[in-house]
UniProtKB/TrEMBL annotation:
<dbReference type="InterPro" id="IPR015943">
    <property type="entry name" value="WD40/YVTN_repeat-like_dom_sf"/>
</dbReference>
<dbReference type="InterPro" id="IPR036322">
    <property type="entry name" value="WD40_repeat_dom_sf"/>
</dbReference>
<protein>
    <recommendedName>
        <fullName>U3 small nucleolar RNA-associated protein 15</fullName>
    </recommendedName>
</protein>
<keyword id="KW-0539">Nucleus</keyword>
<keyword id="KW-0853">WD repeat</keyword>
<dbReference type="InterPro" id="IPR001680">
    <property type="entry name" value="WD40_rpt"/>
</dbReference>
<keyword id="KW-0677">Repeat</keyword>
<dbReference type="Pfam" id="PF00400">
    <property type="entry name" value="WD40"/>
</dbReference>
<dbReference type="GO" id="GO:0005730">
    <property type="term" value="C:nucleolus"/>
</dbReference>
<dbReference type="GO" id="GO:0006364">
    <property type="term" value="P:rRNA processing"/>
</dbReference>
<dbReference type="GO" id="GO:0045943">
    <property type="term" value="P:positive regulation of transcription by RNA polymerase I"/>
</dbReference>
Length: 188
């Protein structure tokens, strides 16, 4: 027969209340995320500067405009034949511009995805950058893999206003910088 054994109780340490830092509380506030599958890589994301600040996601052969409140697709721009780059809103939010891998640049009415307003063919190489001037609503910057940046007036699209062809490599980014000494904008 075996003798009765006394049970050994494990020693437990006191648990302290969890201390969260302000940064942890900040990041835990982003629990309402949404994952959207895309067929190809996302090449550009741009936010509408006007309320409700929807955002355009450029991927594959389309631009999808998502609601900033519901994160659902509210508009689809699909009139592209090749990979699309740099879908950008104009500063008033009324126009959307994008370039594609064939060099074609298309300007749409941002409220009506089916209405294509202007088409430019600045290059036969991929046009990776398309941006509207921040204050002159009719000027558009395009930058392509042919090593040339061009500034267009979209009311007369035959020839660019200026061409900057002194680049040694592909032009994959461009921006207008405010605050020059004359109160205008510079292009970088």
């Amino acid at each position: 027969m075996s003798a009765a054994r006394e049970r050994i109780q494990p020693v437990r340490t006191e648990t302290l209340p969890a201390k969260t830092t302000p940064e942890q509380r900040y990041w835990r506030g982003f629990t309402n995320s949404q994952l959207v599958k895309e067929h190809n890589a996302v090449t550009h994301i741009a936010f509408d500067p006007n309320r409700p600040h929807n955002f355009a996601v450029t991927s594959s052969t389309r631009i999808q405009v998502f609601s900033s409140k519901t994160r659902k697709v509210v508009k689809n721009f699909t009139r592209f034949k090749d990979t699309v780059y740099s879908g950008e809103f104009r500063h008033d939010g009324k126009l959307l511009v994008a370039g594609d891998a064939s060099g074609l640049v298309q300007i749409f009415d941002a409220q009506h995805p089916r209405s294509l307003l202007v088409t430019l063919q600045p290059s036969t190489h991929p046009t990776h950058v398309t941006k509207f001037h921040p204050s002159i609503t009719t000027q558009l910057l395009t930058c392509s893999d042919d090593r040339v940046a061009r500034l267009y007036d979209i009311s007369s699209t035959e020839e660019p206003l200026m061409s900057f062809g002194e680049h040694q490599d592909y032009v994959r980014s461009g921006i207008f910088i405010p605050g020059s000494e004359f109160g205008g904008h510079r292009m970088l």
